Amino acid sequence: MEVFSGRSQSPERHPPVGRSREHRASPLDLHSAAGQVFLLQVVIVVLLVVAAAGAVVLQTAVDAVQQGRRESIVAAQSFASAPGTAAALQSRDPTAVLQPRAEEARKRAGVDFVVAMNTEGIRYTYPYPREIGKKFVGTIAPALKGRTVVEQAGGPPLPAGKGTAVQAVVPVTDSHGKVVGLVSAGITVKNVARLWMPQLPIILGSGAAALALAVTGTTLVSRRLRRQTHGLAPAELAQLYEHHDAVLHAVREGVLITDADGRLLLANDEATQLLGLPADVRGRPVRELGLSEPIMRLLSSPEAVTDEVHLAGDRLLAVNKRPTYPQADRGGSVVTLRDTTELAAVSGRAEVTRERLKLLYEAGVGIGTTLEVERTAQELADVAVPQFADLVTVDLLEAVLRGWEPTAEGWRHLRRAAIGGDRRMFPVYPLGQVITFSPRTPQMRALQERRVMLEADLRQAQGWREQDAERARRALERGLRSLVAVPLQARNVALGVANFYRTVDSPAFESEDLTFAEELAARAAVAIDNARRFTREHAMAVTLQRSLLPRGQPEQDALEVAWRYLPAEAGVGGDWFDVIPLPGARVALVMGDVVGHGLHAAATMGRLRTAVHNFSTLDLPVDEVLGNLDDLVARMDDEENADNGREGEGVTGATCLYAVYDPVAEACTMARAGHPEPVVVRPDGTVTCPDVPASAPLGLGGYPFETAELSLPEGSQLVLYTNGLVGDRTHDIDVGMERLRQVLDGSGRRTPEETCQAVIDALKPSQSSDDIALLTARTRKFPPSGVAVWDVPPDPAAVPSVRARCRETLREWGLEEAGFSTELILSELITNAIRYGSPPVGVRLLHGRCLICEVSDGSGTSPRLRRAATTDEGGRGLFLVAQFAQRWGTRYTTHGKVIWAEQLLHDGASAATGLAPVDFLLDQFDDPGP
Predict the structure, then answer these.
(1) What counts of helices (H) and strands (E) characterise the chain?
(2) Smallest Cα–Cα separation from 453: which of 479, 477, 482, 474?
(3) Which of 134, 131, 122, 126 has its CA nearest to residue 103?
(4) The PAS domain covers which part of the protein (predicted)?
(5) What φ, ψ does residue 842 adopt, rounded to 5°?
(6) Is residue 146 within 8 Å of 157, Cβ to Cβ?
(7) Nearest to 524 by CA among 708, 368, 675
């Protein structure tokens, strides 16, 4: 770029030589630049002198200490290895022998002390005799092991005066290598610290020489600068730099600088080209340059201008004008010119780009707000209309909608998942319809070739028209103009195709629109694939959990039961419930909740539910069931932590409520581990929350579980639930509990099914973030006419009378055909209780859906089933009971145990299968085959 200098040639720019000499300042004047440089040099020299002196002192001190260490070691080792030293240390009076030698050695070696001592550190020698016999000050332990010790330590007074001593301690060994004494030699630090003093004059002399050179150099440089600047003052030099700064910082494209008289002082190449200026413009008035009237008036005016647009030939120029000297009266202006001829076109493209970026931002925010495949596809259609297209349709593979992994075999059959725009205006396929695309359609080509397909004019798109000729004809008549078909791909897998349409009222799609369409579809494809994968996992978890929950109601006489299970929308959790028949016509109710969601929570729930069934089979008390569950959850934690390498961190948590209802006593025993408290609805409709003690959740370990026993008259309803029913993000759990009480209030006459439905209708949230499990059980009372209880004396002779009473009771119940097997079972159980148990012995018969025989005694010993040999006289009693009863077992009470046996009844007869009684008994005595 060629720049014309515009500096004025007035005499004011070059002051007379005499005036310059009059104002010439001394080189050492602190107000001048040379004086300030000289002051800086003086400070630097002083700092260097101080630093050098300090370095010399420090280095000399370090050298002195090192020298003292060496001299101390040599002196100590020389004296320790001298002939006779070891023998003197072992003599009767070591001081008399060694003191003269030590003083002579000290003076000869030039050290401050030589001390000989025994192995306990008691001095035998010292420069001052009064210190002999005292404890040596220093470290001697390493020397006793045969090593040399060098250290700095203070001690008693020395001839050299006070100071820190550098001392060495060496061992003295006899001919056998045994340490018989120690020798220490040392020197005070201050005796050697004087070594740096001779070097101080050299340092100070060097500093003085440096200062002299600084004065001379400053004087010479000051004179040289005055000659180079031709005697210009600092203000004149600043004026020159102002022009250059104006050019450097005000330039945008073309630059013009004018003075107060309207003369052109500077014009760069760009300004010359934009305005068509001649070559010799420097110093010429603006009115003589042949510019247009508006430009000439602009350059001549002293007023500032900001972004004014002026026409110069065939160019539109944006002009900015600022005064050159805004703080002075000298005038002058700087004018910058920018060619804006193509600004309109560029602005249009920039606006389109800005709108596209805004739309991409809206797509990033508005697409993928949920994990539903069809909802995500509809969000893509809604975002693109009307900013990018007038009509949008999204067609997805059937596998994608179901959450399966898509394959190429299903490409020809796509389902319409979303429509954006006025669907009533155009004849498009409706939502949900399966569309079979022909190979020549843009949609199928986009899927097969995995690239965007552009149909700028649908009237010429033969493949699109052949798909459905009549539908295509009507769409063209209503104004469809162009199409962009984009494959929806994620992880290099095709999910479907997005179709963007424009009508005749909008410009047709161009090649520049394809990149944006790809970007928009790519963002939507990722969200759709995430929703698909979530749908698959959610479906798998729901299937797994539903398969682990009860399929139907078990047969039992104690409760009328109904339940509801609602999985969370964001993923199933670990809620479960169960109804488990127990011996003695009792029923166990279970309600639990595993922390977390997904397959892991569902699998953990299945393990816990199986464990509860196993513990219930053992007929354990409710607190022991929860205790065993607590141990199981703790073991599961340990297994999970061991697999993940996070030993000691809990990963599994669960709550559980376990209740056992006895219809004979109309009592319910329950305990809960961190679970919400149950709700009881009395027959009169009164709602209460029984005070069941709250224990710690499962998995914490070491905490007891307290039980509570409730009296539930017939017709009472026991409502169990998980926290998903009463807890929500919008309100506290106490609010949910109060709403539950309000719904249950007055529902004493409702059936459990009606109660469940009423609770779900009232409390189910619109968008559930947690599973909901609800179990309602209405109590029944076991009829007294079906209960027979006797006390049995602890005498085997009482067994026939019990059998007779049993036969009579069965006759009253119409169960004569079950008499033989029942009498046999009772005989064996009572005999075992009398023979092997302890009083009191009792019998109870329960007649309901089955016939239950119970024999209780005060012993805690459990009978064991075994197969007796042919030569054994006994051991077949329980085997016979097991053959004639449907099932049998033992449960423990606070006063002993109960052995029970159940027989299923069909039309008043026992349903036991197998051999006839006589044949069966004879078969037990047959010899086993070879």
Answers:
(1) 25, 32
(2) 482
(3) 126
(4) 240-280
(5) -140, 160
(6) no
(7) 368
Measured between alpha carbons, how far is 889 from 842 in angstroms, rounded to an integer? 16
CB 528, CB 415: distance < 8 Å: no
Phi, psi torsion values for 888, nearest 5 degrees:
-150, 165
Q: By CB neighbour count within 10 A (0-12 exposed, 13-18 middle, 19+ buried), where does 610 fall?
A: exposed
Contact indicator for 774, 756 with CB cutoff of 8 Å = yes
Q: State mean pLDDT over 632-641.
A: 81
Arithmetic mean of pLDDT, 298-324? 78
Fill in the DSSP letter of residue 13. Answer: G
**Residue at 649: amino acid letter:** E
Asked whether the beta carbons of 837 and 893 are under 8 A apart, the reply is no
Q: Which helix (H) or strand (E) holds 379?
A: helix 373-384
CA 737 to chain centre: 33
Q: 675-710: buried (b, 16+ CB within 10 Å) or exposed (e) per residue?
A: bbbbbbbeeeeebeebebeebebbbbeeeebebbeb
Q: How confident is the model at residue 348 (pLDDT cuts 50, 70, 90)?
A: low
Residue 412 CB: number of other CB atoms within 10 A?
A: 16
Indicate the angle between helix axes 512-548 and 373-384, nearest 10 degrees: 160
Give burial (CB, 10 Å; 0-12/13-18/19+) of 48. Answer: middle
Close Cβ partners of 581 (under 8 Å, ≥ 6 residues apart): 554, 555, 556, 587, 588
Q: What span, in angstroms and rounded, lies between the C-alpha atoms of 228 and 384?
A: 71
What one-letter code names the amino acid at 441? T
Whole-number pLDDT of residue 427: 82
Q: Cα separation of 378 and 364, whole Å? A: 14
Total Cβ atoms within 10 A of residue 857: 25
Strand order through the sheet with 254-258: 264-267, 254-258, 333-339, 315-323, 305-312
For the stretch 257-279, pLDDT in tens is 888 777 887 777 777 777 777 77
CA-nearest of 129, 114, 128, 131 to 181 is: 114
Tell me the DSSP string of 320-355.
Answer: EEEES-TTSSS--EEEEEEE-TTHHHHHHHHHHHHH
Q: Look-up: residue for tokens 């159940």?
A: 902
Range scoring the smallest mean pLDDT among 340-349, 392-401, 840-849: 340-349
Sheet containing strand 391-397, strands side by side? 434-436, 413-421, 391-397, 493-503, 480-490, 453-455
628, pLDDT greater than 80: yes
Mind listing the pLDDT tens digit for each residue in 783-837?
A: 888 899 989 888 888 888 888 888 888 888 888 888 888 888 888 888 888 888 8
Please tell me the distance from the alpha carbon of residue 686 to that of residue 27, in angstroms, as a whole number: 109
Nearest C-alpha neighbor of 150 from the set 47, 247, 77, 227: 77
What CA–CA distance (Å, rounded) separates 172 from 263?
103
Alpha carbons 602 and 593: distance in angstroms, whole number: 10
Helix%, strand%, coil% for the chain, nearest 5: 40, 25, 35
Q: Which of 354-368, 499-513, 588-602, 733-747 has the lowest mean pLDDT?
A: 354-368
Q: What's the mean pLDDT in 143-159?
A: 79
Q: Is the pLDDT of residue 723 over 70?
A: yes
CA angle 493, 498, 500 (to 5 degrees): 150
Q: Which two tokens stand for residue 118?
A: 């025994």
- Cα–Cα distance for residue pair 902/910, rounded to 1 Å: 10
CB-based burial label for 449 (10 Å; 0-12, 13-18, 19+): exposed
Q: How many CB atoms lie within 10 A of CB 869?
A: 8
CB 518 within 8 A of CB 422: no
How large is the C-alpha radius of gyration of the chain?
A: 54
Residues 6+ apart with CB under 8 A from 260: 302, 330, 331, 332
| Omega before 697 within 30 of 0, i.e. cis | no
